[in-house]
Design goal:
The protein has 286 residues and is α/β, with parallel strands linked by helices. It folds into 2 domains: 7-104 and 248-283, Leucine Dehydrogenase, chain A, domain 1 (Rossmann fold, 3-Layer(aba) Sandwich); 107-244, Rossmann fold. The protein has helices at 21-32, 48-57, 82-87, 106-115, 132-143, 156-170, 231-238, 246-262, 268-283, and strands at 7-13, 36-42, 62-65, 79-80, 92-96, 99-103, 124-128, 148-152, 175-177, 191-194, 219-222, 242-244. Strands 2-1-3-5-6-4 form a 6-stranded mixed β-sheet, sandwiched between helices. α6 links the parallel β8 (148-152) and β9 (175-177). α1 packs antiparallel against α9 (268-283) and α8 (246-262) crosses α9. The longest helix has 17 residues, at 246-262. It starts with 6 loop residues before the first strand and ends with a helix. Bound molecules: NADPH dihydro-nicotinamide-adenine-dinucleotide phosphate. Residues 106, 109, 129-134, 153-155, 158, 196-198, 200, 223-225, 246, 249-250, 253 line the site of NADPH dihydro-nicotinamide-adenine-dinucleotide phosphate.
Length: 286
């Protein structure tokens, strides 16, 4: 019998105003006739415990967790899925029976986006950045059989820490290179990933990387999705590399969350179309 109580999911973050996730989630719900609502909630760090307790009390099926709560939320869930444990951060909470399980779908989202253009197996990867996104991406690239990962980060100690975590959790020896000026990927590099926040809301900013050494068809991926076409991706196209935008990662990490919450593999094309229209409206307000 149809009822009047939708299932609840949502997002807990600071800066919720700029987070377009709800648009693609609700597009997926409408398309697949999932009776659910996605509420995008602004939660201060000091209120995180209460917000998670509230979601628990109200029977949320789950929620996304975004900046700056991805690590601190670990203290408020009942357990971690293996990916979240290896990554050390949670972006998706799932209710399983009476328990809340922390999962991380950022890396899976990146991987699925990459798989739309090439197989990560055997890839020689340069990973720019060592924050939460970089760590999630690195873990899934290792699991998917990447041949090598060279970590390049502005703060060298953080790059070393990422490499140490990959070795500790997955027995994978990543290389770490300093980033004193412009990074030049070694010839033979198959994939360059910008996992820093450089370029976010800054169409003219680009991480200091020289793409001239890349062979035609090498992939240059950006995690930044606003703007969708970053300066790095424009430069990649100019040198004959294959640009991969951050919107694909965003859509696929969201699709993985929908699958875990509702057991349905959503149509990612529907989600991407909804997101693109919303982002266009966001970028060019009337
Ligand atoms: P973190 O704060 O954890 O990490 C930021 C990273 O960017 C660090 O490696 C930092 O280096 C580096 N960085 C920042 N400014 C500069 C700079 N001026 N020059 C060089 N390096 C710099 O953030 P996250 O990893 O969580 O997020 C990174 C980006 O990924 C954000 O733009 C976020 O929006 C995006 N993202 C996209 C997703 C998607 O689905 N497309 C999902 C998740 C995140 P250092 O260590 O030296 O500070």
């Amino acid at each position: 019998m149809p009822g009047f109580r939708p299932e609840l999911v949502g997002s807990l973050s600071e800066g919720a105003q700029g987070n377009p996730t709800g648009v693609m989630m609700e597009a997926a719900f409408a398309h697949h006739r999932i009776d659910a609502r996605y509420v995008n909630v602004e939660v201060a760090a000091t209120d995180l415990a209460a917000a998670v307790a509230g979601a628990r009390a109200m029977g949320f099926v789950g929620c996304n967790v975004s900046m700056p709560h991805k690590v601190s939320v670990i203290a408020h869930v009942d357990g971690l899925a293996p990916s979240a444990a290896a990554i050390g951060a949670v972006n998706c909470v799932i209710r399983r029976g009476g328990e809340l399980v922390g999962e991380n779908t950022d890396g899976i989202g990146f991987l699925r986006s990459l798989q739309s253009v090439r197989d990560p197996k055997g890839a020689r990867v340069v990973l720019l950045g060592s924050g939460g996104a970089a760590r999630a991406i690195a873990v899934e690239l290792v699991r998917a059989g990447a041949a090598s990962i060279t970590v390049v980060n502005r703060t060298p100690a953080r790059g070393q820490k990422l490499a140490a975590a990959l070795y500790e959790h997955l027995g994978f020896a990543a290389m770490v290179e300093p980033w004193p000026g412009v990074h030049r990927p070694a010839p033979g590099t198959d994939v360059v990933v910008n996992a820093t926040s450089v370029g976010l809301f800054a169409p003219h900013a680009m991480v200091p990387v020289d793409l001239a050494s890349l062979a035609p068809g090498a992939v240059v991926a950006d995690v930044v999705y606003n703007p969708v076409v970053t300066r790095l991706l424009r430069e990649a196209a100019r040198v004959g590399a294959r640009p991969l935008d951050g919107l694909g990662m965003l859509v696929h990490q969201g699709a993985a969350a929908v699958q875990r919450w509702f057991g349905i593999e959503p149509d990612t094309a529907v989600m991407r179309t909804a997101l693109e229209s919303a982002m266009q409206a966001y970028q060019s307000p009337a």
